[in-house]
Every structure is written in C-alpha cells, then in structure tokens.
Write a structure and sequence with these properties.
Largest sheet: none
Shape: elongated
Number of helices: 4
Number of strands: 0
Radius of gyration: 15 Å
Structural class: mainly alpha
Strand content: under 5%
Length: 90
C-alpha cells in the first residue's frame, strides 16, 4: 500500500513539475488563471521539501548511513527518502 502512495505521489509531482516548467517557459497548455495556481503550488511544494530536507537530513544519515540527496528530496520529498529508510530498517 505504501508503494502505491509513493508512486502516486511521484506521478503527481512529475506532472506538477512539468506544468510549472512549461508555465515558466510560456508553453503551458493550461489557462492563465489555472497556471497561476500551479505555479503557487509548485513554490509551496519546493518550500516544504526544502524544510523537509533539513528536518530529515540527520535522521536519514543516522538510520541509513547515506547522505541525503538534495535534488531528489526537492523533487520527490518523502517519496525519495522513505523507501530508503524502510529498506535500511530491515
């Protein structure tokens, strides 16, 4: 069940990043009013993932023995680090 949630999250975030990038390039197929909210949601997601990176960095290092990847955390959030923590806990 957790894998379904993680893959769904990654699919939704991929769509968000695609639409946000297309909006920045003025190539978005979305109406202008909707694109504003997509851009706002992308900014909020980046802010939350930025905070999440620093909040989980030490715990991730202690439990997995690996350094947390900043770019992947910014893109996928817990969809990146949670499976690694789950597999290192086994």
């Amino acid at each position: 069940m957790l894998n379904v949630v993680i893959y769904s999250l990654k699919a939704l975030l991929t769509g968000l990043w695609i639409f946000a990038t297309l909006g920045l390039l003025s190539l978005s197929p979305l109406p202008t009013e909707v694109q504003f909210y997509v851009s706002l949601l992308a900014c909020i997601a980046l802010l939350v993932h930025f905070i999440e990176f620093f909040a989980m960095k030490t715990k991730f290092k202690n439990q997995s023995g690996l350094e947390m990847n900043f770019l992947q955390t910014m893109l996928w959030g817990f969809g990146y680090w949670l499976p690694i923590l789950k597999s290192s806990a086994k």
